[in-house]
Specification:
With about 220 residues, the chain is α+β, with helices and mostly antiparallel strands. It contains three helices and twelve strands, in the order αββββαββββαββββ. About 40% of the residues are buried.
Length: about 220
């Protein structure tokens, strides 16, 4: 009888260990899931020849129904939960990679710039990778409930201000003195009028790769 109880106890312990191991393995695989060759531990890469940067982001479903002015923000920044897309990539890494692929920063705006002032710098095309296809950012958002043809993204620079403000801003919809890149179609302090299209973008919590190409 004792031998049977010992056998049952050993088997139970073995199954428990195997179960924990499987769980840890599954969690590890989930954490290292690759999208466009990127993971949360390696959320950004650049291609000097193509003059492109790819960033791994996560869709924030809040801004599929509510407006924002932030496209991509680092999760640790003060604006980490205020953007359409969240990322583990840092503003500094994005800034450095833009430099590496030949982009030139405008650095023409400050927090004291006149409202309506527009960002300068190398022109950038922004694409969302959806179902294996590149979709222009303009196709995936609305401005005041209306479609927009060209957000005219630029490499604003702003690294010093970004470091000081600690907002985590990587990419903004309207001209911004803090975001590393932002849209020149709408001037500084245009405001929170941009909403992601749920008919185009993946659902809340989905991982989404974004490609930023220097024109």
């Amino acid at each position: 009888m004792k031998k049977k109880q010992i056998f049952i106890s050993v088997m139970t312990a073995l199954l428990l260990v195997l179960g924990i191991g499987f769980s840890l393995s599954s969690n590890s695989q989930a954490a290292t899931k690759s999208v466009a060759g990127l993971t949360t531990s390696k959320p950004i890469k650049y291609d000097k020849q193509k003059k492109e940067i790819t960033i791994l982001t996560t869709v924030n479903g809040t801004y599929l129904t509510q407006p924002t002015r932030h496209v991509i923000v680092n999760v640790d920044g003060s604006n980490g939960n205020k953007s359409l897309l969240k990322t583990e990539a840092t503003p500094k890494a994005f800034y450095q990679d833009l430099k590496k692929v030949g982009a030139k920063a405008g650095n023409n705006l400050t927090t004291k710039s006149k409202a309506g002032s527009k960002i300068k710098g190398s022109s950038l095309a922004v694409y969302f990778l959806i179902n294996g296809k590149r979709v222009k950012a303009e196709k995936a958002v609305q401005v005041n409930g209306k479609n927009v043809k060209n957000l005219d993204f630029k490499f604003g620079g702003n690294m010093a201000t970004n470091n000081k403000m600690k907002t985590g801003c990587v990419l903004c919809f309207d001209s911004c003195p803090v975001g590393i890149a932002s849209g020149a179609k709408y001037g500084f302090q245009y405001g929170e009028h941009f909403t992601g299209k749920s008919s185009v973008l993946p659902k809340d919590g989905s991982q989404l790769a974004v490609v930023i190409k220097v024109k």
